[in-house]
Amino acid sequence: MSTIRLEHIAHRFGKRRVLDDIDLDIEQSEFLIVLGASGCGKTTLLNLIAGLLTPESGRILFSGRDVTAQDVSRRNVAYVFQDYALYPHMTVEENIRFPLENMKWSKASMEVQVEETLERLHLADVRGQIPAQLSGGQKQRVAIGRALVRDPAVFLFDEPLSNLDPQLRDHLQVELKHLHRQLGKTFVYVTHDAHSAMVLGDRVAFLSGGRIRQVASPAALYREPAALEIARFFGFPPFNVLEQQGLNQLFQEPIPKTAVKAGIRSEHVRILPDETGICQVLWVQSLGDRTFATVSLGGVSLCGVCEYSDLREGERVAVHIDKNNMMYFDEEDFRITDC
Ligand SMILES: Nc1ncnc2c1ncn2[C@@H]1O[C@H](COP(=O)(O)OP(=O)(O)OP(=O)(O)O)[C@@H](O)[C@H]1O
């Protein structure tokens, strides 16, 4: 039985429907990512799971129990916010202890639990400091500690790492993944960052237009996206998309009848030195370990991996496309799977 089940959930703010017919099963102990563009309704979905909002229609079940009408205090969930939401005048230790005082824990068990949480999150050295004296990463650890200390069944995270610089974010992502393994609890984590989704998630639910478009492992979402918008959400440099004209130029062999677009990731396009090549380099991006070049072929531009890094703009090159990794999309931008 799944920990959390959302059945036909819809929600609106005023006249605007933000979520529509959401069905989602979140498994016991899984790390589920809700991924989508800014404003697509991720926080609203998390607030509904937490019990901070009541859906307009549909049901929310926790371990088979209908909790739709129950408020946050009865759901045994902990919520970690993007902006930390720490008490500014309390020390790290007091911030972490506060939820237990609220729940009227005994002094002795409270001390054991607070101590363990401080150790687990490497906060023991800064226990006496107030939030203004902490780095962003430490503040976020305190926020996680405050959620952890209550030992809830479910953890909800709303973009908790998006205020941090990339190195710190990567570091905390690893810590969070370890924490998830150690605790064995259910984590639901919303983000607009495909990179975080890939690193953290056991599964990713892609939300767009108020609906869940696909739920799959990060690798499956990357390799077998259900639609063009999902393919485009992942990967850098951006996913190459060829419309009808490009398709006709590049492919002599038949393409699926219903295909109106094709797409390929840049790692499956190789740019090769060739003075007689029919493509011209438009620009070159070096990432240190790899170099990508965008080339033009007639009116079509394509980004691919360069075999050598001293490529110049305007140079002539050949392009090799690994057609086995080509994806085709129909009129409604859904990926065609029977090809
Ligand atoms: N209390 C509210 N009243 C009216 N509209 C709201 C309210 N909360 C959210 N919205 C609107 O609902 C839509 C979804 O908001 P939500 O915060 O769930 O999106 P999100 O995907 O979490 O966005 P972001 O990634 O930017 O945080 C947005 O258009 C937002 O403006």
UniProtKB/TrEMBL annotation:
GO terms for cellular component: ATP-binding cassette (ABC) transporter complex, substrate-binding subunit-containing. Keywords: ATP-binding, Cell membrane, Membrane, Nucleotide-binding, Sugar transport, Translocase, Transport. Residues 4-234 form the ABC transporter domain. GO terms for molecular function: ABC-type ferric iron transporter activity; ATP binding; ATP hydrolysis activity. The keyword Transport applies. It holds the Pfam family ABC_tran. PROSITE patterns: ABC_TRANSPORTER_1 (PS00211), ABC_TRANSPORTER_2 (PS50893). Signal peptide: none annotated. PANTHER family: MALTODEXTRIN IMPORT ATP-BINDING PROTEIN MSMX, TREHALOSE IMPORT ATP-BINDING PROTEIN SUGC. This is ABC-type sugar transport system, ATPase component.
